[in-house]
Amino acid sequence: MAQSLPKDQSTEQRILHAAKTVFYRKGLGGARMEEIAREAGINKALLHYYFRNKEQLFERIFLEAFEQLLPQMTAILAQDLPLEQKVQQISDFYNEMLLETPLLPVFVLNYVQSDPEALTKRMISVNASKLMSHLTEQLAQETKAGRIRDVAPQQLIINLLALCVFPYAMKPIVTRLFHMSEDDFRGFSESRKQVVPEVIMAYLKP
Amino acid sequence: MAQSLPKDQSTEQRILHAAKTVFYRKGLGGARMEEIAREAGINKALLHYYFRNKEQLFERIFLEAFEQLLPQMTAILAQDLPLEQKVQQISDFYNEMLLETPLLPVFVLNYVQSDPEALTKRMISVNASKLMSHLTEQLAQETKAGRIRDVAPQQLIINLLALCVFPYAMKPIVTRLFHMSEDDFRGFSESRKQVVPEVIMAYLKP
DNA sequence: GGGTGGTTTAACCAAACGATTAACTTCCTT
DNA sequence: AAGGAAGTTAATCGTTTGGTTAAACCACCC
Hints:
Helix content of chain A: over 70%
Shape of chain A: globular
CATH class of the largest domain in chain A: Mainly Alpha
CATH architecture of the largest domain in chain A: Orthogonal Bundle
Oligomer: homodimer
Largest sheet of chain A: none
Distance between the termini of chain A: 52 Å
Structural class of chain A: mainly alpha
Order of helices and strands of chain A: HHHHHHHHHHH
Low-confidence stretches of chain A: none
Largest interface: A-B, 51 and 51 residues
Strand content of chain A: under 5%
Number of domains of chain A: 2
Number of strands of chain A: 0
CATH topology of the largest domain in chain A: Tetracycline Repressor, domain 2
């Protein structure tokens, strides 16, 4: 970060990239506009010219992150595919995505915790009722057919999310706890793609 | 929080309690000393009288939280007990503790993410090498005896932590996603005490 | 060259913020 | 009662912060 962003990008894009970098680490309250401007290699007044104020800039970054966290999963789970395939798809998606943006989970969860009321309207995009009815039906059929144990859809979703997302939220702690280099963590992330479905399917086995 | 803390507590205790409330939600950068003072029902100058500055007050709160997150788990895992018992103990400990302080995980992870360098010295208290050697040996014995599958200790620890901790980090999202009341979430937390060991042990089954 | 629209800059502003200060209050001991 | 120590307060301070402003700059067109 000694030298800022390439100059061939538009100013708006450079601001967005810089804002993401700073907001992901410091959150809304901790991030400084001067810092974002420095990161983008621009004059601070441009932040206001392009994004009006801090909150609107943050909103832009947050929305994009939030869209990566839950809607993706609900979309995959809503597909007409065997359960095992969906679990694998989710594992692949999250492990790949989060390897590139490991700061995302804590960024989202932190903001949600600091301002829970702001969350309510955003949950609309998650389309939970459709997910729940679809998944509930699929689980019921699988259980009836004796292919899986009886499990509450909530528990399944939570387990899946936890196993996929939490290792990245814990990355600074994990890497120090296990003395992992960046390459070690990459290898770990790769192994998670298989471990997550194994854990989930083992639990589902009747 | 309309009316602040009971006046029968010492000023220092009231400050600590208020600081915990505010720091857990807003983090170090987002919390305001004036807000903490208001929460404690005192004059702002007292914060400096008792805790010198913002950082030192925060440090006090953070240390306590961090001690709840990892050292507890390493202590349990280091015991000479059957694996299944240890898993159950961990599940019980975390689910009970986090039901009372659901904001703790995100509070810790957020600070760790905003200042990763500050984490390194604190990992010393985790005593990871003792944990790893002890757990590795136990897992090797269990595998050799054919009682569990071959599993890397890192994967086991991560799965366990993820399944125990993440639901609480996700509480605002979970409660809205599944339309849970506070009582619903309490029931959910209670069920997690059993689900976590079930998931873990199912995965370990050879 | 002059005009237009868009972008960028340095300087400035008012409020917020963490921290300090001097005065006051309470309690205890002599 | 006086003095000392610890605790508390309201006012003040210096710095930081998000945001604004006026001017400058740039590219393009007639």
